[in-house]
């Protein structure tokens, strides 16, 4: 098993699946996995046969625990700003801009960067037992991959404030009520197949155009936010707060 984890791309006709494959670490995102995600997204960008992309996770402990804090524990502020935050922003944005319809299948909880990754998909389908959260402030840092922007866009400032300023998670039903999750289902696979079938019944060009129209406002709003995200993570690292809280919480 690759201890750094991997993101696998599987294609079956009109449906592709990106799999976060690091179950032993609750699918925490390593820099290696972000590079794999970049490769997979680039392959899908030019695949006209694929119409739906599912984002799944291995194991049943978590969808994604966020960024691998062990990897950037001793990173410099500059390393956090560029290789981590800015690269992650570019890769996540590329996922959001895929012409295909993207669906995050959340079989487990999603925190920090894991939630941010799911929020870059068009739809999120979740099991009722999961939890989502943005706990970065409890680690002495801030959401770095446009998570605040995405939460504000979907659920408003009060939801973003509750998640990010307290670091507390919320359950699937509350996430659904806020609009951060689109479907909560006991039978996760049945819900996924129903949504995939609905998408495949739509016109290819029409679906792509509608997606771009709906995402345009988010794209316009994300430029400044992405810069602030990258600088804020580096700033908290430079002050020593990030290292302090990582040592306390691990």
Provide the descriptors you would attach to this structure in a database record.
250 residues, alpha/beta, 2-enoyl-CoA Hydratase, Chain A, domain 1, 6-stranded mixed sheet, 4-stranded mixed sheet, 10 strands
Structure write-up:
This protein is α/β, with parallel strands linked by helices and 250 residues long. The chain has a single domain, classed as 2-enoyl-CoA Hydratase, Chain A, domain 1. It contains ten helices and ten strands. It has a six-stranded mixed sheet with strand order 1-2-3-5-7-10, with helices on both faces. A four-stranded mixed sheet has the order 4-6-8-9. Strand 2, helix 1 and strand 3 form a beta-alpha-beta unit. Helix 4 crosses helix 5, helix 5 packs antiparallel against helix 6 and helix 5 packs across helix 9. The longest helix has 36 residues. The relative contact order is 0.14.
């Amino acid at each position: 098993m690759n201890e750094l984890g991997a993101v696998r791309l599987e294609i079956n006709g009109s449906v592709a699946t990106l799999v976060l494959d690091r179950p032993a670490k609750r699918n925490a995102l390593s820099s290696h996995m972000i590079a794999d995600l970049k490769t997979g997204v680039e392959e899908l960008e030019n695949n006209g046969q694929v119409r739906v992309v599912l984002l799944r996770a291995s194991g049943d402990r978590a969808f994604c625990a966020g960024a691998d804090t062990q990897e950037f524990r001793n990173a410099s502020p500059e390393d956090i700003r560029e290789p981590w935050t800015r690269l992650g922003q570019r890769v996540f944005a590329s996922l959001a801009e895929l012409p295909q319809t993207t669906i995050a299948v959340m079989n487990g909880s999603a925190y920090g960067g894991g939630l941010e990754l799911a929020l870059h998909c068009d739809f999120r389908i979740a099991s009722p037992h999961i939890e989502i959260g943005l706990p970065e402030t409890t680690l002495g840092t801030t959401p770095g991959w446009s998570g605040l922007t995405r939460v504000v866009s979907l659920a408003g400032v009060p939801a973003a404030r509750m998640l990010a300023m307290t670091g507390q998670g919320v359950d699937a039903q509350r996430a659904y009520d806020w609009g951060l999750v689109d479907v909560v289902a006991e039978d996760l696979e049945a819900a996924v197949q129903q949504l995939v079938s609905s998408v495949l019944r739509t016109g290819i060009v029409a679906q792509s155009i509608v997606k771009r129209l709906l995402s345009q406002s988010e794209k316009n709003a994300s430029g400044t936010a992405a810069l602030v995200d990258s600088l804020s993570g580096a700033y908290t690292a430079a002050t020593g707060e990030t290292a302090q809280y990582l040592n306390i919480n691990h």
